[in-house]
Request: fold
Amino acid sequence: MSEAAIIDGKAFAEGLRGRVAEFASQFEARAGRKAGLAVVLVGEDPASQVYVRNKGKQTVACGMNSFEHKLAADTGEADLLALVEKLNADPAVDGILVQLPLPSHMNEQKVIATINPDKDVDGFHVVNVGRLATGLPGFVPCTPLGCVMLLKDRLGSLSGLDAVVIGRSNIVGKPMAQLLTAESCTVTVAHSRTKDLPEVVRRADIVVAAVGRPEMVKGDWIKPGATVIDVGINRVPAAEEGKTKLVGDVDFVSASQVAGAITPVPGGVGPMTIAVLLRNTLVAAHRNAGIVLDENAI
Ligand SMILES: NC(=O)C1=CN([C@@H]2O[C@H](COP(=O)(O)OP(=O)(O)OC[C@H]3O[C@@H](n4cnc5c(N)ncnc54)[C@H](OP(=O)(O)O)[C@@H]3O)[C@@H](O)[C@H]2O)C=CC1
Ligand SMILES: Nc1nc(=O)c2c([nH]1)NC[C@@H]1CN(c3ccc(C(=O)N[C@@H](CCC(=O)O)C(=O)O)cc3)C=[N+]21
Ligand SMILES: [Mg+2]
Reply:
């Protein structure tokens, strides 16, 4: 029996993509071209191939161009950097996403540093990290921005709430903590060295789990009524022999007995990540073309 409200990220993402599609068609009418997203995939990781295929389909469905570049796993770093430079210079490309992780012979930071910050729709370039840290307009990483959209839709103002972010990665935990700070939450960042994690989590009105450990956060860690955002995407063996399923970093069955609201996996944060990527690409297109867009309207 599930007591918490289920935060339907899939439905929210559909609505967001609908707004992106409206503004994308207005952009096309005004700019005389479609907004464009280039996605670069190096290697044949099956999960990455699924994400890239989904991104491509949804980009086109929103009335934008999708440019997919698939490189062999043994591609040299210099060849990838040359492709990124080519995309930087291509006026049809508004956003560039290089799917991570990259093969181990490549330096991810160097590749990200080569992306033009004004096309960095992932928000991973140090220029965008610095803009977020100082409150300047830039690009915010898609997953944490999607989480904040869901939280504000659910709770309205987040001001004064106690938030715990579990995880301190550059792509989720750190930017998540910064966005919640900007929303005037009192933020605690927990990680693998945190002492007594269950006790830290029990203080929180908002829990964001971005750990990469299947079902680690248990129901008896959750303050009754808290809002739980589960970023984790973990593929684990299913009951049926040979099959797998996706689970989050939160033990959904026990946490949903206690939480006020919770995101499911799948159907929670994951679909938001792609929808926000499309939103960021549309924002990039307007900025790059010098066309004014009310960014709060989408
Ligand atoms: N839904 C989506 O769109 C996305 C989902 N993800 C998913 O989110 C999860 C996190 O991703 P990412 O941030 O890249 O992962 P990382 O592996 O980069 O970071 C994991 C963080 O969790 C911390 N951690 C690990 N073990 C524990 C523990 N036992 N207790 C407390 N903290 C712990 C680590 O601490 P320390 O720093 O001390 O090592 C680290 O800060 C993964 O499941 C990933 O698949 C990621 C991106 C997008
Ligand atoms: N440069 C870069 N940017 C990223 O944003 C990026 C990346 N690299 N590498 C991998 C991670 C992971 N990620 C997800 C996107 C969508 C879902 C998603 O749509 N999930 C669905 C389920 C999909 C399924 O069934 O596999 C859901 O949760 O409902 C999940 C995870 C983006 N990432
Ligand atoms: Mg990582």
Notes: The chain has a mean pLDDT of 97. The first strand starts at residue 5 and ends at 6. The two ends are 35 Å apart (CA to CA).
